[in-house]
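Thought: the user asked what Kinesin-like protein looks like in 3D. I have the sequence; next I should run the structure tool and report back without guessing.
Action: structure_tool
Action Input:
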Amino acid sequence: MLLQVEELEEKLLDQTQEVERLRSELGATDLEKQLELLLVENERLKQELKSCRSSELKLDAAAENCSCSRCPHSQARQRERRLAELEKELLEKSSRVEDLQQQLEETTRQLEETTRQLDEARRRQLENQQNLSLRLQECEEQLARQAATPRVQFVTQTVEVESADTQKVLAEMQLKNGALQEQLTVQRQLLRELETQLHESQRTCTQLRTQILVYEGEMERAQGQLEAEMQNLEEEKNRVIEEAFIRAESEMKAVHENLAGVRMNLLSLQPALRTLTCDYNCLKRQVQDFPFMLDKAITEAKQEICQVISEVSNANQELLRKYKREMNLRKKCHNELVRLKGNIRVFCRVRPVSQEEQDSADAKTMLSFDSDDDAILYLSNKGKIMTFELDKVFPPQATQEEVFQEVQSLITSCIDGFNVCIFAYGQTGSGKTYTMEGVADDPGINQRALRLLFSEVTEKAPDWDYKISVSMVEIYNETLRNLLGENPTDKLDIKMNPDGSGQLYVPGLTEITVQSPEDINRVFELGHMNRATACTNLNEHSSRSHALLIITVSGFNVATGNRTQGKLNLVDLAGSERIGKSGAEGSRLREAQCINKSLSALGDVINALRGKHSHVPFRNSRLTYLLQDSLSGDSKTLMMVQVSPLPANMSESVCSLKFAQRVRSVELSASSSRRHENSSTSSSPTHDSVEVTMSLPF
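Observation:
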């Protein structure tokens, strides 16, 4: 038992010594010394870097003072970049030292924690030792008491007495020994853990010392490079300063030489200065006299300008008088030219054959032209050649522009205050609508006429102020329809103007003032949308009504105060084919009857005008009644007869051309004694008094 206690005491002593040894070995004095050395070295390097920068600034100042182009700025910039790189490297090493310092602090904290644990283990070991000492003392006292007790006489009994007490004590000591063995096992395990942590800390310290040695070597190398750079910079600085001093001396010498030359020039310029002084005094006297000379020159210039203005004014008055005379002469000549050509002029236009018609069997052209005379048209009908003489014949290849060039002189007459009428006549599908309206890319007479009027009005704008208004009327089944109104189905009537002028007018007819081609396009779109069309055997989109574009041009002469008003009627007549050929039925038949009636009335008016009858039946039709002011008096009329060259349409073409020849022989008169029909069977015809006409009276 005593041996076991002694062994425990020896083990506790050995553990205490081992703890003291570990504690002494784990001291951080070397690491702290290395850290302090690194910090001192870092501060020294910073100081050297600051001194390098100050030297660099001095070198920059010396380089600025140097004016020679041979200064080694590139080398200085390279050294500056090298210093920046060294500074960056130093900063990286400083950050690495800081990281090492943090790792060292962490290791120190771990060592402190290990020391604290060792102290705690030592304290527990001391407590256990004290407890063991107390128990040992108790055992010794108990043994002493047992020794003082008298021995039993018989060995057997003594052994039995000693055996009972000893067993009891031994059991207790064994229990205590087991507890101490468990505590010793725990202490050994804790000691092994502390030894493991100690080994880890020693290995970490070894790695840190190795890294510190590496960084110290790198810092020594960087320090050596910095010292070499500093030495090179110092030498370069001295060399640059010496060169700058030499250049400054040479420049100073040159300045002195230039100064001597300037002094010589000043001595030579003194006579010239005296001459300039004299000239300056003369100019000063002239400047003092300049206001008087300027006033005199301005007065003379004003007199000359006034004289020139007076002469120009007289010349302008003479030019204005000549201009007015020439304008009147031009107007008279223009009217005489139109009159000599015939007040009712007749043009013929032959439409081209379409691709579908060329592919068909009936594609032979029955019309031919005279190469020497563009007013002759030949037509082959039933084996006979018929000759028609008109004012102008347009072949199929004629363009819209060529057609308009022939009629534009007639259109400009409305600007001078005349009534002008241009109407397209012919069977359905002969090209009437194309000639009058055209297409978007190639417009017809309607749009070109308005553009021409705009151009003429613009040219006369300084002296004349014109207003152009447009109306569109449709005569459908002998009923007037306002194509530009809000309700095109409203019926209109033709009446005499109550102002006593004898002119006709249509109450409620919409008139739109146009000022640009865009306005014209909007007006035409609205009128076309409201016009009535239908399908017949001759044309899929046959116009079933007469369309009238009425253009009124009102002018005012700003200089003379004269006023003019002319009217241009552009008429797209409905198809003139016979009812049997058109194949119309039902409502289409009634439309055809009304169309033929109005065209027959137009023929009657033409015959009356041709025969110079005292009575002209204008009121027999809405069409002729509305065109009365354009078919009589000093009005100017042009008929564009449209024909088809196909054999299937020869009969209709012959009728159209014969009617055109009769119209061409009509001579309108400006005599005011001619009596027009102002009273007939009714004040105005209506669609209820329709007379069925099967064919035109040709």
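Thought: the tool returned a structure. Summarizing for the user.
Final Answer: Structure for Kinesin-like protein predicted. The chain has 13 helices and 17 strands. Confidence is low (pLDDT under 50) at residues 66-71, 152-161, 533-542, 670-698.
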